[in-house]
Amino acid sequence: MQTQKTVHQKLLGDGEIHQKLLGDSEIHQKLLGDGEIHQKLLGDGEIHQKLLGDGEIHQKLLGDGEIHQKLLGDGEIHQKLLGDGEIHQKLLGDGEIHQKLLGDGEIHQKLLGDGEIHQKLLGDGEIHQKLLGDGEIHQKLLGDGEIHQKLLGDGEIHQKLLGDGEIHQKLLGDGEIHQKLLGDGEIHQKLLGDGEIHQKLLGDGEIHQKLLGDSEIHQKLLGDGEIHQKLLGDGEIHQKLLGDSEIHQKTQTKTYEIHQKLAWEETDEVR
Fold first, then answer.
1. d(CA 161, CA 155)
2. Under a CB-based contact definition with an 8 Å cutoff, are residues 168 and 27 in contact?
3. Taking the CB of residue 67, how many other CB atoms lie within 10 A of it?
4. SS3 125
5. Other CB atoms within 10 A of residue 21 CB
6. Do the beta carbons of residue 17 and residue 8 sit within 8 Å?
7. What's this model's pTM, rounded to 2 decimal places?
8. Domain positions in the chain
């Protein structure tokens, strides 16, 4: 019987990484100089994430509806739900919420204190909104899918998109994001001021990525074999692949391209 675990890694001069982990799910990651990350998790839905210096995040969840989120330093969130209508939300420190629903009519809401608001916009799509004192928002957009959002005082957001999968996001003061995509695996992301990213993909393996000014990247993939990569200005790479054999690589080139394919077969031959 032949078992094969394949890891494809392509490290280009600009720090681009393509990873394909066969067996559980495919992950494509592209780390550019500005900290841009593209992730594609096959099986549940495609996720595009772009993490810029100001904490901007673009997420696209195909299948149910496209979501664009932009998280600025003041806690501003822009959400665009295609198919039903565009929603802009701005969450300021005093609990102010601005919502703009295009297509049916423009709505500006400023919620100070503890007032409750019920809104029902019939015609294009039914919207139920209930804004309580703790900043809880219930939105139901008929036709596209139900959205449940709860905005707590610490910036916690709960979103449930029925049909595609549940998304749990918690935005803390230090830029920490918790995302849980049911069906595909849990993603834990922590975005610190120095561009550090922690990602944990349950079932596939833990990924630790740290993107510093010198383009240092640490990656640890548990389960498939441990990979430790450090990309410094001189192009140094350390890789340790536990399992059948240990590989230690160090390159001093400024511009480099590495293709690796690790196959474990009956003959224990490493190619």
1. 19
2. no
3. 21
4. coil
5. 20
6. no
7. 0.18
8. 7-262
